[in-house]
Amino acid sequence: xxxxxxxxxxxxxxxxxxxxxxxxxxxxxxxxxxxxxxxxxxxxxxxxxxxxxxxxxxxxxxxxxxxxxxxxxxxxxxxxxxxxxxxxxxxxxxxxxxxxxxxxxxxxxxxxxxxxxxxxxxxxxxxxxxxxxxxxxxxxxxxxxxxxxxxxxxxxxxxxxxxxxxxxxx
Length: 170
Prior knowledge:
Blueprint: E1 2-3, E2 19-23, H1 29-38, H2 46-53, E3 56-66, E4 72-80, E5 90-97, H3 106-120, E6 126-128, H4 135-144, H5 155-166
Parallel strand pairs: 5-6
Antiparallel strand pairs: 1-6, 2-3, 3-4, 4-5
């Protein structure tokens, strides 16, 4: 999915009561990896994390922490990650949330924080990648204002199927 070039992000970054949006700290590593595994990224490892940190923008590794339990509830990061189609691109990466804390729009919180960070850093080419079956995430991205990137021949049909499953009007 892509963020339309030149489009500002007018939505505020908000966090529900009982949660705090903050930056990743090294002592978070073990709990961060557990959150990634819970979210279905079972192959995400310490090596994966170290690799992503190499292209991480400053102040762009967001976590939502539950204030009382100190559990990590959601995460996303902004990376400098050019592609052939987008040679100056930044990416919204590794969006994940805890099932225990679902239904509180925490995914929206971290994605908006990353998007605003990318825009503040001057990126006009912003994208994210995800899987077709991640319907709640896709709905979040569409609500925020991301648009499908029809980069392959099958993308229009895939997006039509996604729209139907989400009951999304285009």
